[in-house]
Amino acid sequence: MFKSIVTVAALLASTAAFASDIPSRKAAPAPVFTQKASPYYVGVRGGLDYKKDDQNYTVGGNAGYEVNSYVRGEVGYDYVNNSDDKTKTSHVVTGNVIGQYPIATFLVTPYGLGGVGYRWADVKNEAIFNVGAGVRYGITKSFELDGRYRYISNFKNENTNNVLTLGVNYKF
C-alpha cells in the first residue's frame, strides 16, 4: 500500500514538471534597456534670426550636462550673419538653465530655458539675456532632435532678436 502511494505521488510530480515545459501562446516580453546614455551632451544647430525688419541666418553649437530628468545646464555659441549694412556679423555666447519635463511614452521632452551671456558685433558689444522654449525628440538613446525658440536682448531691451533653430544633440 505504501509503495503504491509513493508511486502515484511520483507520477503526479513528474506530470506537473512536464506541464511546465509546454510553451505558452504569449509572446516573449520585450527586452528592457536599463543602460542610460551619459548626462553629458554636445549639439549643433542652425536657423533664422529675426531682428526688427531683418531676417538673418544663424549657426551654432551647445554643450551641456543633464543634472536629472528635469534640469539641465548648457553653454551655447551662435554665429549670426546679419543682412543690414551696419553689422555684418555677430557672435553670441550664453549660459542657460533648462527646466524640462520628459514624456517617456512619446520620447518627447518639452522645456523652457533662461540665461545670460555676451554678444560681440562689428558695431557694439553688450551683455545680454535670453529666454525661450523648445522640444526635444529622442531618436535613439544617444541622439535627439532639438527645436527651440529664444528671445535675446540686451538689458536695456533695445537690441532684441527672435531666434528659431533646429539642431541635433549627441549624448556620450
CATH topology: Porin
The rounded distance between the terminal residues' Cα atoms is 71 Å
**Second rung of CATH, namely the architecture:** Beta Barrel
CATH class term? Mainly Beta
Instruction: Report the portion of residues in β strands.
Output: over 45%
Report the radius of gyration as a whole number of Å: 28 Å
Tell me the helix content. 10-25%
The main pleated sheet reads as:
8 strands, antiparallel, barrel
Strand count: 8
Structural class: mainly beta
The geometry reads as rod-shaped
**Helical segment count:** 1
Question: pLDDT under 50 segments (min length 5)?
Answer: none
Task: Give a description of the structure.
The chain has one helix and eight strands; from the N terminus they run H-E-E-E-E-E-E-E-E. The relative contact order is 0.18. The protein is mostly beta strands and 172 residues long. The chain has one domain: Porin (Beta Barrel), CATH 2.40.160. It is rod-shaped, with a radius of gyration of 28 Å.
In short:
This protein is mainly beta and 172 residues long.
SSE topology sketch:
Layout: H1 2-19, E1 40-51, E2 54-68, E3 71-81, E4 89-100, E5 108-121, E6 125-138, E7 143-154, E8 160-171
Antiparallel strand pairs: 1-2, 1-8, 2-3, 3-4, 4-5, 5-6, 6-7, 7-8
List keywords for this structure.
about 170 residues, mainly beta, Porin, 8 strands, rod-shaped
